[in-house]
Amino acid sequence: MFKWIKRLLPTGQDREKEREQLQAVKHKASLAMQRYSECSTEIKSKIEQNHFARYLVYEKGGNGEHAHN
């Protein structure tokens, strides 16, 4: 029975693989947030430069955002 229980426990190799996968997911999420931030900043800059949609208001709710002037 001890051998069967031991087989169910994670090995050092399993723990290392899980740690690597977690690091990869964290890195991917970090890159996605950085890209979002850069795009958001770029869009805001373009709006300010072109005076485009200066008074545009977005309402949150439903299945998305709806623009109003």
**Helicity level:** 55-70%
Calculate the terminal CA-CA distance, rounded to whole Å: 71 Å
What is the string of SSEs from the N terminus onward? HHEE
Strand content: 5-15%
How can the largest sheet be summarized?
A: 2 strands, antiparallel
Please tell me the overall pLDDT.
80
* Main structural class: mainly alpha
Number of domains: 1
Alpha carbon gyration radius: 24 Å
3D shape: rod-shaped
Written description of the protein model:
The longest helix has 39 residues, at 12-50. Strand 1 (57-59) and strand 2 form a beta hairpin. The protein has a two-stranded antiparallel ribbon. It is mainly alpha-helical. The protein is built from 2 helices and 2 strands. It has one domain (13-68).
SSE topology:
Layout: H1 2-8, H2 12-50, E1 57-59, E2 66-68
Antiparallel strand pairs: 1-2
What features would you highlight for this structure?
rod-shaped, mainly alpha, 69 residues, 2 helices
Summarize the structure in short.
The protein has 69 residues and is mainly alpha-helical. The chain is built from two helices and two strands.
